Each structure stands twice: as structure tokens, then as C-alpha cells.
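Entry type: protein chain
Record version: 2
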Amino acid sequence: MTTTQAPPRPAISVQGVVKSYDDVHVLRGVDLEVEQGSIVALLGSNGAGKTTLVRILATLLRADDGAVRVAGFDVATDGAAVRGSIALTGQFTAVDEILTGRENLGLVARLRHLPQPGQVADDLLARFSLTDAGGRRAATYSGGMRRRLDIAMSLVGRPPVIFLDEPTTGLDPRARLEVWDAVRELAAAGTTVLLTTQYLDEAEHLADRIAVLHEGRIIADGTLAELKALLPAPTIEYVEKQPSLEDVFFAIVGPGTTTTEDAS
């Protein structure tokens, strides 16, 4: 007899989530699902509610209404299990600049009660190309290196779901590319990533699916191709292509990534 295998449950499930602050309605019934091992970009302008939604998913804020499950756990009734299954990297790094990169990672490993924290730190330094800088104080790191270290700290304990809230805010173009590479590696290893960003090119380069949050609601959700299909058929015009500022920047400084010897 043939058995039908049930589809895998989503890593993140948001149904009808509402959140208000007094008379300000931030989230007005948000629905969103994120498949396991995928990268979903949540787009929205400032004040759209992106960070509020992430804080609800991370159990840092309680929704007024709706249902939310992360890694199979209800955020309202099983917050401890949710927190044990996630990592959150905000807009500003949680790196202690007085400690070395290795000490930062080892500290988080000890806080999570993991065996062999030094080995955990060394493995993550290698994964994020920071081994040579592991013995240096984080204050000497470039912006891209510091953000990579921040993401590495989030991965201590191998959480299956990670929230990246505006992870490249304030970074230069090269540092942004370094973070993009790190995010791709996360998904390739099976980690589910929910990425909030204001940068359209960031979503275009990284996300498997893109959700647009506007005035407290998801108004579009799909792959890049699906979202493009919502527009009228394009007209074909032949124009002379001029290099963008990004093209000029990388032509001048070279295409390579920042080395671990670079200082901020």
C-alpha cells in the first residue's frame, strides 16, 4: 500500500498577528510562512512593522492577537523552547569589543552550556574566515568582520532558525557582500533564515521568497519571478548602459573580499 508523506511543517508560521501601541496599529493581521532551510526576505519601509514582527517571533514581545509557531513551538505558550531553537542578530552587533573574536564565541558557548567551548569557537572562526583574526580584540575588526563575528555568535549551538534584522545597516559595499556570503552559507547548511531589510538588492540577491510588509500587512509574498509577474509586460528599449557607482567602486578597489588582516 502506498503511503502519502505529509509535507514538512514550516519553520515559521504566522497567522493573523495583530500588534498595537495605544492608538498606533503596527501589525494589522500578518500572515506568513517560511519553509525549513529557506531564506525569506521581509521588505518594508521604516515603521512598517518589520522589527516588531521579529520581536514577536523571538518571544521578546507578545502579540495582541493571532497565532505564531517557530520551529514547531507556540511562541505564546512555549517560549523557552522557541528561544532554544532560534538566534537573533539585530541591527547593531552584540560583539564585546574588549574580548577577542575567539573569546566572544567561547563566552556564548559557555552561556549555552556547550562542551568544549574553545573548539566551538575555533570551528566557527574557521567557518566565517576569521581564524587569523581570532586572537585579536574585536575592536580592531572591520565592519564586515565584526558583523560576520556577530552572525557566528548567533550560530553557537546550531539553532535551526535565525532572524537577521537589518544585518547590513551601516556597512560599506564590500562588507555587505561578506555578510551576504555568510547568509548563503547558513541556508546551504540547512538553517532557516528570516531576513528583514530595506535594501531591495539585498532581497533580490539572497532570498528564495520575498514578503512585502506595508501598513501592517503582508501585501505581496512570492519568489522574485512571481513578484515580477505582477507587473505589466515590459517594453523593450535599447539604451547605452552606464556603469553604476558600485561597478566603479569595485573596479577601483578590486573584486576581492576584505582580508582578515583589514582593520576597521
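Comment: Residues 144 and 175 are 4 Å apart (CA to CA).
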